Amino acid sequence: MVAGNLKMHGSHTQIETLLEAIRQEAQALSSVDIVVLPSFVYLQQTQNILSNPIVEWGAQNLYLGISEAFTGEESGAMLVDFGCQYVLVGHSESRHVFNEDLALVAAKFKAAIDAKLQPILCLGETLEERKQGETKKIISQQLESVIQAAEIKAFRHAVIAYEPIWAIDAGSTATPEEAQDVHAIIRKWLGQYDSAIANTMRILYGGRVEADNAADLFRMADIDGVLVGGEWLEAKSFLAICQAAC
Ligand code: PGA
Fold first, then answer.
1. Rounded Cα distance, 159 and 182, in Å
2. What is the CA radius of gyration of the chain?
3. Which residue lies with its CA nearest to atom 6 of ligand 1?
4. What is the band of 168 on the pLDDT scale with cuts at 50, 70, 90?
């Protein structure tokens, strides 16, 4: 899977150019599950352009409940209304910039499942935590809080993305081996609960994935795809990453 997180980037015109390019190339990349995650405001446009089952789309966040007095928020049902199949949950920018805690991330994961969306659950440690040797502790806390709230069987309909915070939008990226080590921890942790879910779980890596390092990441045993941020504003780079996944 190659998923593109557009964050708070893009304009009507840019989205059209990007999605048209992806749509045209998608046929030749049918061995890759391509997912695009634009801002909420471009979901209608995305649905119009990608009326092509080869490319799926989703949103970058959601809130709890169905029809509530939560000004400025979007429910899972609303995302489904716009053809979304996926939604990011617990992205590091949501956790760290907008202070989403473990309980809220777990509740959002459950809300996504209840709405029949596939959550892409993001996990990741800060540089400080990594330096202190706490990577496993942080990742397992983030994962465990969701397992406890949503139950392991919900993970049949989920994707996990390991995104070390020190590698997102940053100058350094994890080596394929560093990423692989954490992906193996995640799979092993899931395996304590359900080996079938652990074995089939798609675990993506995110954090400065580019056309140049994508192929090496895809070669690792437990890396099943990538979550790409900044790079994919350029359709050419995003498509090169998809190509590396073939
Ligand atoms: P990046 O972001 O590829 O720009 O590092 C990835 C992400 O935040 O999902």
1. 15
2. 17
3. 229
4. confident
Q: What is the mean pLDDT of the chain?
A: 95
Q: State how far the Cα of 78 lies from the Cα of 37, in Å rounded to an integer.
A: 15
Q: How many CA atoms lie within 13 A of 80 on its CB side?
A: 13
What is the residue-wise DSSP string for 140-189? HHHHHHHHHHH-GGGGGG-EEEE--GGGTTSS----HHHHHHHHHHHHHH
Give, in degrees to the nearest 5, the angle at Cα 220 between 145 and 217: 90
Residue type, 79: L
For every residue of 55-95, DSSP letters joined together read EEEEES--BSSSS-S-TT--BHHHHHHTT--EEEES-HHHH
The pLDDT confidence band at residue 19, using thresholds 50, 70 and 90, is: very high
Contact 63, 104 (CB under 8 A): no
pLDDT at 231 exceeding the cut of 80: no
Note if the pTM is more than 0.85.
yes
3-state helix, strand, coil in the chain (%, to 5): 50, 15, 35
Q: Assess whether the C-beta atom of 168 lies below 6 angstroms from ligand 1.
A: yes
Q: Is 177 exposed, middle or buried (0-12, 13-18, 19+ CB in 10 A)?
A: exposed
- Cα(165) to ligand 1 centroid in Å equals 9
Instruction: Choose one of 89, 98, 169 to mutate for the ligand 1 pocket test, by most ligand atoms within 8 angstroms of C-beta.
Output: 169
Alpha carbon 113 to its chain centroid, in Å, reads 15
